[in-house]
Amino acid sequence: MNNSDKERAFLNAQRRVKKLRGFYNHLTVYLVVNIVISTFKIIRNLNNGESLQETIFDLSFSGIWLLWGIGLTIHAVAVFVLPLFIGHNWEEEKIKQYMEEDKKNNYN
Predict the structure, then answer these.
(1) CA atoms of 57 and 66, how far apart (whole Å)
(2) Residues whose CB falls within 8 Å of the CB of residue 90, separated by 6 or more in sequence, listed in order
(3) For residue 51, which of 10, 14, 32, 77 sits 20 to 30 Å off, Cα-Cα?
(4) How far apart are alpha carbons 59 and 65 in whole angstroms?
(5) Distance in angstroms (rounded) separating the CA atoms of residues 30 and 48
(6) How far, in Å, CA of 75 to CA of 69, rounded?
(7) How far apart are CA 71 and CA 105, in angstroms?
């Protein structure tokens, strides 16, 4: 493995770690924000005379978890599943393809 291959492998690994870190940050924010919002809603609704069951099964309570959870699921698919189908080197191959096309267009 020559230096350019090692450098390319390092950059690919670095890009994958950055995507993974972005997902974990998204997951952390999702959990913290939703737990805080849910806690305030539960306390407010219990103080308004609702039961815990009524509070939890209220759509405004679970809607935030559900809608944001869909976005988080899409993010997870993009990070973990999509590379299995298109390959980890897909970005690198596309960059090479575009550079080749630009090179051909500039010389014509």
Answers:
(1) 12
(2) 83
(3) 32
(4) 10
(5) 27
(6) 10
(7) 39
User: How far apart are alpha carbons 56 and 42 in whole angstroms?
Assistant: 8
At a CB cut-off of 8 Å and minimum separation 6, what does 36 contact?
none
- Cβ-Cβ contacts under 8 Å for 81 (sequence gap 6 or more): none
pLDDT digits (tens, 9 = 90+) for 47-101: 989 888 887 777 777 888 999 999 999 999 999 988 877 776 777 777 778 888 8
> CA-to-CA distance for 93 and 88, rounded, in angstroms?
10
Q: What is the pTM of this model?
A: 0.73
Domain regions of the chain by residue span: 3-107
